[in-house]
């Protein structure tokens, strides 16, 4: 391992991403690998004292049980700057506070990230700088194309990391192992035997004070346009020759280029809803529209569902439904692969003969293969059984994996520029239809499974 950066400069350091996910993961990484010393510089518009910043970092590290010499060294030297990060002079000052080669981490809403990239054109960047940009990449398809061009003027492609932390989850490797290290699944992995695939990421979390970002994004852009399409690409991709960044990115790119909204109709293939007041896990949650910073007239959805087709020999005809939402009653993070029914049940066998279902659960990663077997008392009567397994949790948090690959300059866990644009192309008709009001905005009480008349998935 040759660590190629010395400073992590986090823009948007006072935000939810930084304190809840990025800093704990940095703490965990440095605890496991103290030989990777890194200076941490934070910047955001929030007025934080040095002591307040240090206590944020300390609390984030504590949440990951981070400790040791690299942690102590980082805490002794970390600094925080209250600045407008879209200002070129402020950015130059921030870079002056970095030691050695920095990675600039854009933990910012996408519109702000674009402005920072504009501002960086007036800044002299160190040769070894790396740019790590959070999802969503840009604010729409044209914006993503323009952002790619802007970035190309700043640094070469190999220094650009379009972050999607779902690629850092052990789930991705687990999926590749399950599919390509066994002969039993791959021959069935196509429209010949699979009826439908649902990818569900239901959260119990509400807005968590993130209106500044989320109210302009909504569930479709926040989760489906990025994370869930990436997961779908791994579920559906052709077997890669190696797990190298080039092979896996090519294979994902082929899937996403072939993906289109099912039937080309946003009205039939998408649904959206927003939570009203309710109780999640015994906690009372106010309506989304009553949260500070939310503008109800934006009609931001907190639950989204989209069905796409992958137009290839392997997948034509199989609907892939992606769903994600907030403030739901149950946390449900699952890839559900529903097989076609057996073509003929021998006469003489009775009872339950539902199609087989393979469920791959995310965090903790587990799988369950639900099949029909002969019942214990009368062997002519079928019953349902579930074969389960637990995957290893991985050594690092998803963001730890992401940071490690950023520090090492390995693009395996980041999204290629053309793929980031493809993902916007796939959801563009839905965004337009939702803006036009062609698809109604339903509602659901927080703590429920979603609108009462939505058919359940998986
Ligand atoms: N939170 C999460 O769970 C995850 C978030 N992400 C991504 O991370 C990004 C940020 O999200 P999140 O942290 O949730 O959003 P937040 O709204 O919580 O944080 C945004 C941060 O950016 C700062 N900021 C905004 N504009 C400026 C500016 N002009 N100058 C300086 N600072 C500025 C804010 O400072 P201030 O508050 O002072 O305005 C705040 O620190 C998004 O792209 C999101 O998709 C990705 C994965 C998970
Ligand atoms: O990117 C995001 O992801 C989180 C969900 O990921 P998790 O790893 O925290 O489960 C989501 O809550 C957030 O809205 C979104 O921006």
From TrEMBL:
It catalyses: D-glucose 6-phosphate + NADP(+) = 6-phospho-D-glucono-1,5-lactone + NADPH + H(+). Substrate binds at residues 165, 203, 222, 326. Pathway: Carbohydrate degradation; pentose phosphate pathway; D-ribulose 5-phosphate from D-glucose 6-phosphate (oxidative stage): step 1/3. Pfam families: G6PD_C, G6PD_N. It comes from the Bacteria. Residues 10-174 form the Glucose-6-phosphate dehydrogenase NAD-binding domain. GO terms for biological process: glucose metabolic process; pentose-phosphate shunt, oxidative branch. NADP(+) binds at residues 45, 84-85, 135. One of its GO terms (molecular function) is NADP binding. The keyword Oxidoreductase applies. The active site is at residue 227. InterPro entries: G6P_DH, G6P_DH_C, G6P_DH_NAD-bd, NAD(P)-bd_dom_sf. Belongs to the glucose-6-phosphate dehydrogenase family. Catalyzes the oxidation of glucose 6-phosphate to 6-phosphogluconolactone. This is Glucose-6-phosphate 1-dehydrogenase. It comes from Glaciibacter psychrotolerans.
